[in-house]
Amino acid sequence: MRLDKFLANHGMGTRTEVKQLIKKGSVQVNEVIVRKADYQLNPETDQVLCQGEEVRYVDELFIILNKPAGVISATEDHLHDTVIDLMPEYQHFQLHPVGRLDKDTEGLLILTTDGQFTHDVLSPKKHVNKTYYAELDGTVTDETVDQFAAGITLDDGYRCMPAALKIIKPHIIEVTIQEGKFHQVKRMFQAVGSTVTYLKRIQMGGLELPADLATGAYREMTAEEINRVQHV
User: What's the CATH fold of domain 129-204?
Assistant: First the structure.
């Protein structure tokens, strides 16, 4: 990989800015000053210092976030705080959220630079489950469980794929879906006469929201966690 591309990709500045840093002798590769922007390096094995700071190579990045209410699942917005705003040290990595959680919905959200991973997780054909904990204004019964299993019809006439509804209390449930239509969980409960007052995603595929990840906290995912998203 070209040295200037490596530095720009890892947040050291624009391509023009990093070329100036290289020209001024501010960049070292394996403890040797390099002044050529087109210098070819092995990003996996070579050590790169920019203005004395080591630049850690990242191929594809995966972040797990316990999303708080009040922020939107977007990369940028002029009116509201976004999930990207919560993690300033990762903003230059061009992360995007894997699916969306409504502004007032909390819980498990994955952000990544890997577009293929996002496609695989979100495609209904891949059958990756998403499980939510919800509190309701209204109650559900065993009949509601059967309705969800058969496929709820939304207000626009769309027939949802079968969903698994688990009743914890008459007004507290867990629901597992494989789709991600706009406000889907809320609209499913509206269709059976209940209103969702609190919603939190607690699982994607085989990955549960870590118990030690506080609301608003985030960290890089392990390889095992990444694999568990796609394999139950």
Answer: Alpha-Beta Plaits (3.30.70)
